[in-house]
């Protein structure tokens, strides 16, 4: 199994990931969907962006 996202850093409430995906925007959508699917992620306000 190939990992699409790898967490590389945390600064406060910001999480930083690297991705091997060619389509970074698609990776962002996947990350956001996975986080929203958790009990706590469903009630949090957060942003996922590409830098």
List keywords for this structure.
two-stranded antiparallel sheet, 51 residues, globular, alpha+beta, 1 helix
Describe the structure.
The structure is a single chain. The protein is of the alpha+beta class and 51 residues long. The protein has one domain (1-51). It is 25% helix and 25% strand. The protein contains 1 helix and 2 strands, in the order E-E-H. A two-stranded antiparallel ribbon has the order 1-2. Strand 1 and strand 2 (14-19) form a beta hairpin. The model has no long low-confidence stretch (mean pLDDT 84).
Separation, N- and C-terminal Cα atoms:
25 Å
Order of SSEs: EEH
What share of residues are in beta strands? 25-35%
Radius of gyration: 11 Å
What kind of assembly state do the chains in view correspond to? single chain
Mean pLDDT: 84
**Using DSSP, what is the number of strands?**
2
Show the helix and strand layout:
Blueprint: E1 5-11, E2 14-19, H1 24-36
Antiparallel strand pairs: 1-2
Question: How would you summarize this macromolecular structure in one to three sentences?
Answer:
The protein is built from one helix and two strands. With 51 residues, the chain is α+β, with helices and mostly antiparallel strands. It has one domain (1-51).
